């Protein structure tokens, strides 16, 4: 016979207490901060932004949205009210942002001192302006030809980062096996058995 206790049947802490439902996926938004997440400018540029305090909210209304009256709107005049009214707030942002280019939106966010960044796909990350400006990109050789690679995050002054060619599949197998103590015949057996 199995005896259950209240502790054994209680919902896990990550479930909503009143309904025991799993939280919904929220993409780049934040459960306790609004506005927070990815917004789209009129030219399709995606910008991730975060307004986390009242100074930022007032500045965002005045400079980014050009709607200073929203700062004192009862639906949005505190962080918790902005979260409760997230959908309406996001509709206002979408409406204003649809009339701006990504560059214009970034200029306004910078002027308002609002944390933001352009959302980029993998291809764009490879040519990110900061990587280029900081000389973080280099070229390495590979079995398929030269490839662009990112230099290590940490470097030592006066020393260049070691960026050896990318080895071909199995190129160093015998050297590693030899280091591990496998002699020629032993390595030959491993190859014959397709173990390496």
Helix-strand layout with pairing:
Layout: H1 6-9, E1 36-40, E2 46-50, H2 54-64, H3 79-84, H4 86-97, H5 102-112, E3 115-118, H6 122-125, H7 129-133, E4 137-140, E5 147-150, H8 173-179, H9 184-192
Antiparallel strand pairs: 1-2, 2-3, 4-5
Helix pairs in contact: 2-5
Written overview of the protein:
- The protein has helices at 6-9, 54-64, 79-84, 86-97, 102-112, 122-125, 129-133, 173-179, 184-192; strands spanning 36-40, 46-50, 115-118, 137-140, 147-150.
- The chain is an alpha+beta fold.
- The chain has a domain at 36-119: 2-Layer Sandwich (formyl-coa transferase, domain 3), CATH 3.30.1540.
- The strands form 2 sheets. The protein has a 3-stranded antiparallel β-sheet, with helices on one face.
Which key terms come to mind for this protein?
disordered N terminus, two-stranded antiparallel ribbon, 9 helices, 11% strand, 196 residues, three-stranded antiparallel beta sheet, alpha+beta, formyl-coa transferase, domain 3
Highest CATH level, the class of one domain: Alpha Beta
For the largest beta-sheet, the strand count, sense and barrel status come to:
3 strands, antiparallel
Tell me the CATH topology of one domain: formyl-coa transferase, domain 3
Strand content bin = 5-15%
Structural class comes to: alpha+beta
Q: Strand arrangement, largest sheet?
A: 1-2-3
The N- to C-terminal Cα distance equals 53 Å
Ranges with pLDDT <50 over ≥5 residues? 1-12
Rg, Å, rounded: 27 Å
Number of strands: 5
How many DSSP H or I helices? 9
Determine the mean pLDDT.
Answer: 89
Give the SSE order as H and E letters.
HEEHHHHEHHEEHH
């Amino acid at each position: 016979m199995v005896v259950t206790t209240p502790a054994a049947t209680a919902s896990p802490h990550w479930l909503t207490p009143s309904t025991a439902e799993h939280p919904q996926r929220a993409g780049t938004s934040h459960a306790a901060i609004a506005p927070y997440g990815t917004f789209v400018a009129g030219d399709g540029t995606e910008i991730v932004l975060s307004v986390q305090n009242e100074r930022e909210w007032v500045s965002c209304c005045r400079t980014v949205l050009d709607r200073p009256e929203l700062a004192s709107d009862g639906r949005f005049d505190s962080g918790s009210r902005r979260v409760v009214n997230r959908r309406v707030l996001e509709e206002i942002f979408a409406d204003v942002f649809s009339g701006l280019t990504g560059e214009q939106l970034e200029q306004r966010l910078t002027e308002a001192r609002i944390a933001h960044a352009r959302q980029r796909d993998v291809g764009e990350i490879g040519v990110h302006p900061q990587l280029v400006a900081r000389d973080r990109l280099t070229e390495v050789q590979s079995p398929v030809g030269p490839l662009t690679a990112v230099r290590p995050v940490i470097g030592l002054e006066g020393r260049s980062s070691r960026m050896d060619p990318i080895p071909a599949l199995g190129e160093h197998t015998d050297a590693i096996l030899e280091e591990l103590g496998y002699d020629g015949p032993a390595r030959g057996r491993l190859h014959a058995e397709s173990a390496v």
